[in-house]
Structures are given as C-alpha cells and as structure tokens.
Amino acid sequence: MNAYLSDKPILSATKWRRVTISPSSNTGHVNAWLENGTQLSVRPDGSEETGPHGSDGAWEQAKQIGNRLVYDYAGIATPVVYDLMVMG
Fold it and tell me: Residue 47 pairs with which residues in a beta bridge?
C-alpha cells in the first residue's frame, strides 16, 4: 500500500513522507519503506533511524491502527505513533 507518513510523531508533523507499507514477518505488523529505499526504525528511546532494505526486527515492526502507525514493542520507553495518510 502506498501512503504518506508524518515526518514526526503524532500532532507534531511539519511535512509528509511518501512510504510503502508492507506486511512484516510478525503477524499483524507492517514495515514502512521510505522513498529512498530505506526502512523506518524506531529505537527503544523513541528516536527514529533508517536501515537497509530487508530489516525486520522489532524496531522496524509497527501496527497499523486506522490512519496511524504505532511502534510499541517490549523494551521501548513510550510507544511512538505516526500519522498515516493512505493514498486512495
């Protein structure tokens, strides 16, 4: 699925990034691939980084809940939520 992802967690977005959302290896989770071919990762401290194509660890797995991507896994300090605007 093609979509746009906020550049910062919920309610603080200043721009939107084009992403492709695809199922992860963990049932019920998805991965977000940025336009430059890297994958969005959220570290345990809540900071964002990108990684190589093909990563599928806990830091790269989000749950899509409505129009949001939620990164919430064992060890993360506070869940990180991004707004997601799905392209029709």
Answer: none
User: Cα(78)–Cα(57) distance, rounded to whole angstroms?
Assistant: 18
pTM given for the model: 0.83
Quick one: CATH architecture of 2-86?
Answer: Trefoil (2.80)
Domain parsing of the chain, residue ranges: 2-86
- Whole-angstrom Cα distance, residue 64 to residue 83? 10
Mapped onto helix, strand or coil, the DSSP state of residue 59 is helix
Q: What is the mean pLDDT of residues 49-70?
A: 89
Question: Under a CB-based contact definition with an 8 Å cutoff, are residues 71 and 2 in contact?
Answer: no
In whole angstroms, give the CA distance from residue 4 to residue 11.
15
